[in-house]
């Protein structure tokens, strides 16, 4: 299913005058305060987020799953959905594939499809947390399994994923390891870490020189006593032991209660060790909710760290990978992704508005109250007209969800693909 | 598959002399300290725990499931597995059924099977958290759904479960409600509570007069923003509004981090409002690990509250329902259940050994150090010989897991039922 | 120290034209969307928050305290500080006293001082968590102490606090109970709850008929194993047992990790059982940070519940007490309080802007995405011009902190009261 | 106050025959299972724990402090208290001093006192979290303060502490840094980390070559938004950047909810990066409760990691520092320390009993149930007779707390030092 550009422009037209008014007023205010409004809009336009192939269908929990209907049935349809998101939001231009779910049957056709939609291939994802017919079970772990045969199989799978990614033009491999144990004693904590280190090193060796390895951490689930890579410290330890192009991936839902995530981001940026992000939100654990829907201020503070780290030269903005990773149990996945892209844009834009010179002065002088005012000054601002302006300039929809609903997209997808179509994923 | 009693007695025989020595020494020590050893053994023998029908197969997480093989394929085979557990441990004599998974096709045959194995039917469980072909989806809730049609359907399902239970001789209905929301705004917090209250009241009205309603609470999962019954306070509020025979069910994994669960138990017992338990253990959330495997001291403290509450006349021991509710992702479910039954027995026995007179004196005098010593005096004791003695006296195995393995039970079950047999459950 | 009204108006004047422009644009937009802007401003003006007497000096932690200088040395100076806050913010018009810290030596003089500043006396606070020369120590508890003599003393203290409050025109008593235990076994969980119930009942009996009892809960600190009133459920249980005018006080920092506080608020409002609030913010525990500085979205969601509960007739807005309770370890307390009052105003105003009709429609239709959009539509709005307009209309400062700093208030207070003056408090 | 050795032996005599019986039975059982009982007793005897000088008086919380009476008034009396603990328990032989609280006025006299009591000087502790008359305030940080003058002062203080320690024969410096911030924006997360790294490097340079630097981490308190060294990862990062003899100190109470602490220990041991321990226990945060009083199984699992790490050659047992760090708010500090030393001994002994060969076999074969049984086999054992035997062999009391109470030690200390004597500490 493809959007008609004419309808989109027509719809935009109807919203244009009120947008002009709001954008004009905001732009004027920001200019008076010394901001380069055009520069801001350009930064917003340039910031693009990858969408994972598994986020296009309904997710689920261990208690069940409720299908949404019209889910993409194969890789081509997944690309089409991302093409739709791109057309509406102009905020995503790449897809992150998951192997074995997304092995292309015809590389040339997939590549040409992607090209026609303006979509490139972000980091590849391997899967050693499920059994899908491979000789050895991953029930008790993969890269850190006590049995060498299982570890070898898991390494080989990752190498295969790299090969697939090379053909598609991807430049990175994301390793999320579910390995761990459910009970004290089940695994040797030291040995399983050691084996993981060895396995990751082998995978790293198999990577092309222009690739990076993104090593994810997560404190628990699906294992509930210990996870081999539970925190950024362990991920960082492993990365440093395997090579320069191994860096730490931060998934916002992978932390213990009360963790200061923006500080972890700052500490990684400080070391030029941040591989990238999996955006989502959570109240309890790895809830995989729409990013910004629960803790919008946290998302803003994370962007403050990223922007200041980049501006200060600690870690280059371009070296960081951006991806959404959420699970849509009760929402239409495409609408959810549009909400996520909007919240990311809003948070990023607000963080751009922080008066960093003033903030630094407050920090140096110990003006705690002033520093808080500085952040609130940016956070309280309604920046949606800026975000909308950037989107319109790129040819996107003034109101992506509104247009998506007006066009009855989900209904059409269900007609095309069926009410029971089920996308691969969790 | 049935155990040969002769083999069991033979195996027991081989372990008997060392048991005699250990039990004799412990009994002698306990007697010197003024304990009635026979009385203790009788109490241990009398304490029986129900097993849920869904705990007999491998569990799973949203990331996948690893089958164990030989899982019971129907209700009859589930009863057989519990019969096996009973023969080995003499610690369980009832099953808790889950509808629609366990609707008997032939009531008479199921009842006669249960009778022949000495198994009765504990509280029934309804399911309004999944879709299994019913007209209205439970995706956005059941008893607290915004739509009356869905609420009515969910109430009717519960009434049907009561009808099934009546035929089997059950005396209770456990309601675990997954209802809630994933995002702020999705549900009206007040209205959804109100609707739940109304629905529970209807279900209560449909219950026979000698039944009780066990209302479970859980803070999150599968909903990750709000759950309608998140804590004991809400469960208690609802119970009090529907009637005297509605009480609060405590599942050990259904609490926020750092909750003092034994205090909740004490507060419920104080009000004669404790319906019963779902035993399991957890380190992070509703991990559903083997009870006592992570926090054995907590389990001991809970039994201290239950015993003191019963001895002081706050709530009668007999009025409380006892059930295991765990998920076996990496263990043989039958072995896991045997470990759970053993840990429950050990904790219960240690709690029986607390010198409550001395403890109360310390509490009244403000002797904080002395009170801790009192509890440690009981907790540090190795009570396994007492537990074993009780089991042997009832005809169980001296070493249940040892005998189960010696008899190659799982291998035989796989031969009978197949390596791919899959039990209903989570 | 008193502010000169002329200086204030002069300063306001200098900010007026830009405020006019911003307010005008916002008012116009809101009107177009169907809002009654004047009505909104009136609601903001009417919403007043009490300040506790102990929040006017520097707070501290168990690791030390860093004085701020110029702290109020007695009750009169405390009233003066609150008068200052009132003049600047027009958002507070009452003080909450803490006994024994704030026993007036001359009631008439205190009352006339308060009257002249336009300050009334909000709920009184008793102190049975510290020793200050009373015969029996509160080391092991007060209202729930195992010794009757201590309980009697604690009850008598509360009765005395009521007497003091009666003379000042207060209409409520807030009981925060630190009672609990540090170790398993130290206290009988059931008995200590029972004694607390008895003690509260005696206090309730001593209260005038037009007073209310505000019963606070807190999961831990200063006791670290169990706290007698750890959660809203226990507080509610106690309140219901003592009488209709006993209700539950919510302090935002008194919850276990990940608690959904807005749901607790909704559940209390549903029962007309919410006594009031202690506003602050926290990332870890009872951090007592400036409200809204860590989780502004949570504060907004709480106000959404309060407003909808009031509009739906569940609990009347006027029946709820509003108070700040924070500890200022690194900020000037007066500046901190101004930031808190501003964040409360902003959150309240945003919650007023929620299109509740549309939200309810989304909830009834199961439009999860739409419901989230509804809330974000209000939350993303920059409502500061509305808040400022209300303040200016009441005669307050356009920019309270700016004016406070321009006037060098803290410097003058230090000159008056000394750099080492120390206010009573924590 | 000194214990009479004769009275101690007399008291021991009265408990001897029952001890003999219990120890004999246990030793016989353990021998039959292949254990070297004498070897076990020797290991228990050799394991000694340092006591911090600040743990000898009553602790407190920000809500107040309740003195115990008879607290040591100066360093000499502190040494005497530790001498008493040593005589009774034979489980401690060193003290950890805190500067500026414990600066000796006469080094020779302190050293001779310590020698006569058989007490040596463990790691020194600096204090840059409080103001005690130094020129620059630590209110906004010390080693990571934005102002260089404050950082220089804090470095100089640490260098002074090293100088004092050198004179006393200490071989280590423990740095616990309270530095952090209470509000987003208050501090630059990256810069404050960088400054801390620089300051620690300077301190490291000032350390003698046979000293080690123990760098503590803590997620929050007294700062409640960010702490510069919040986790083992940051501590490890800093240590690695300053030199080989800088290692990570683990305080059991310094973790976010649900942290798997034994895994952190294993990860540090894996890298030979564990400096040592601060033993205590906690249910909520840095509760500083008696170690083993809340989570005894966790303490056992930690010792399992330490013993296996040492036996496997990952990190030498001798390279690790052992210290108690608790706060005694409701207990007699000396009794509390005796309970802590006993719980450490019990946990250590149980961990020694784990059949590691069998456990490793279970781990390699994926026998999850068997591995749990292995640990429970050791944990359920009542090892108190072994611990008592070791203590008696060294000349300690059979029942330390019993003897302490029989001798009325606290009463005598109050007579000597007064009921209001107050020890330095928190």
From TrEMBL, chains A, B, C, D:
Gene3D superfamilies: Divalent-metal-dependent TIM barrel enzymes. Keywords: Isomerase, Manganese, Metal-binding. The keyword Metal-binding applies. Pfam families: AP_endonuc_2. One of its GO terms (molecular function) is metal ion binding. Residues 108-288 form the Xylose isomerase-like TIM barrel domain. The keyword Protease does not apply. This is L-rhamnose isomerase / sugar isomerase.
